[in-house]
Amino acid sequence: MSGFAELWAQIAPVGRDAQTGGYLRYAYAPAEQALRAWFLDQARARDLLVEEDGNGNVFAWWGDPSAGDAVLTGSHLDSVPHGGAYDGPLGVVSALLAVDALRERGVRPVRPIGIAVFAEEEGSRFGLACLGSRLLAGAVDPAAAAALTDRDGITLDEAMRTALGHGPRGARPDLLGRIGCYVELHVEQGRALLDLDRAVGVASAIWPHGRWRLDFTGEANHAGTTLMADRRDPMLTFAATVLAANEQARRLGAHATVGRVQVYPNATNAIPGKVSAWLDARADSTETVEQVVAAVHLRAQARAAEDGTTVTLTAESVSPETEFHGGLRDRLSKLLDGAPILPTGAGHDAGVLSAFVPTAMLFVRNPTGVSHSPAEHAPDADCEAGVTALATVLEDLAC
Ligand code: GLV
Ligand code: MN
Ligand code: MN
Ligand code: MN
C-alpha cells in the first residue's frame, strides 16, 4: 500500500474554492506557497536534501546530488484558475510515495533520485507557461521574466521577493548538468487510457503549441446615444475572430481556444474601447499551428477593416513539438507490462527539460477525460497504480 489517500487528503483543502470545487493555486500566492511549505516538510521528514535553484523551483534529493547522473521525477503545484486537483500535485505526491515504497523494499539506488517541484507551470499568473523550468534551462531571460506582470500589476520580481526573498536568477547549467533523466507522472488529460482499459500509460510526444495575445482597439462610446452606423466596436471584431479560430482549427485538424478575455472599460452601457483576448493554438505539427494562427490573424484583420477597428497579434509563448526520448519511452512501456504509448496536446515541464536530458512521462487514467476543470479526476486505485509504476521505473533507472 502506498498510502495515497492519506497523503492526498493533506493537500486536498489547500486553495480549494468551496463554491466551484476548483483550485486557485497561483504561483507565489498563499495557497501555492502553503503547498510548497508542505512539500518541504514532507521532504525533510524523509531526510531528503532540499535544494532551491533561485528560480522558484525546489528539488528534494535522496542520495548525493553532486554525484550527478540523477534520476529526477516530480511535477508542479500551481493550478489554472478553478482547475482540478490532480494536474501537477499528482506527480509530486506520487514521487514522495514512490520513494517511500522503494525504501520499504530496502532498495539502495546507485544514482541519486530527485523530486522536483517546478514553479508557475501553468503560466496562470504571469502568462508564460513552464516559467520555472524555462528559467532553470536558460530558455527565458531572467530580466525579461522579472518584469512580467500579473492581473494586479504585480511583477514576477515582486512576487518572488515577497515569497522567497529574491527575484529570478536564471540559467543553472550546473544543476541541469547533474540530471541524468527526468520522468514526470501526470494525470491524463483525455480519455485514451479509459478506452484502452489501462490505468497507466507512457507519453510519446507533446503537440507544438503556443499562446498569442490579440488586442482589438476601437472607440469607447455611449451605448444609448451612439448610432449603430457610427460605432467602432472592437467587441464585434473580437467575436468574429473567436468564430474564425474555431472554424480554422476544425478545417486544419488543430485545436484553437480563446479562454481568456479582458474588456475595457467592461461596462454594460459602454461600447468598449479595447478588447484583449488570448488565443491558444495546438496541432500535431508546427506548420499547422502557424497556419491556424496566420489564418485567424488574416480573418481578424479583414473584420477589423469592416468594423473600423484595429487588431494586433503578439506571441507570448511558443513551444515546439516535443518527442520524448525513444529509448526511455520504450523501456518504460516494457517495464510496465506494455503500457500504451500516447501523444498529448498538453504542455509540461517535461517538454522543456527534454531539450536537455532524456525525458519521459507517465499518465494516470482520468475517467472524466476532463482537465483544467474541477471535473478532473483519478480514482485512488489508479493513483496507487501510478505510484507503483513510478517506483518500478525509478528502481529500474537508478539501481
Ligand atoms: C498546461 O497545462 C497547458 O497545456 O497549457
Ligand atoms: Mn495544466
Ligand atoms: Mn500539469
Ligand atoms: Mn501543463
From TrEMBL:
Residues the entry annotates as binding allantoate: R211, N269, R282
Give binding positions for Zn(2+) 2.
Answer: D87, E122, H372
Needed cofactors: Zn(2+)
Question: Which controlled-vocabulary keywords does the entry list?
Answer: Hydrolase, Metal-binding, Zinc
Q: Which residues are recorded as binding Zn(2+) 1? A: H76, D87, H186
Name of the protein described by the UniProt record: Zn-dependent hydrolase
The similarity annotation says: Belongs to the peptidase M20 family.
* Superkingdom, natural source: Bacteria
Keyword Phosphoprotein present in the record's keywords: the answer is no
The organism is: Catellatospora bangladeshensis
Q: What is the lineage of its organism?
A: Bacteria, Bacillati, Actinomycetota, Actinomycetes, Micromonosporales
Which segments constitute the Peptidase M20 dimerisation domain?
Answer: 211-306
Query: What does the cofactor field's note say?
Result: Binds 2 Zn(2+) ions per subunit.
GO terms, molecular function: hydrolase activity, acting on carbon-nitrogen (but not peptide) bonds, in linear amidines; metal ion binding
**InterPro entries annotated for this entry?**
Amidase_Cbmase (IPR010158), Bact_exopeptidase_dim_dom (IPR036264), Peptidase_M20 (IPR002933), Peptidase_M20_dimer (IPR011650)
Which PANTHER family does UniProt cross-reference here? Answer: ALLANTOATE AMIDOHYDROLASE, ALLANTOATE DEIMINASE-RELATED
- Keyword Secreted assigned: no
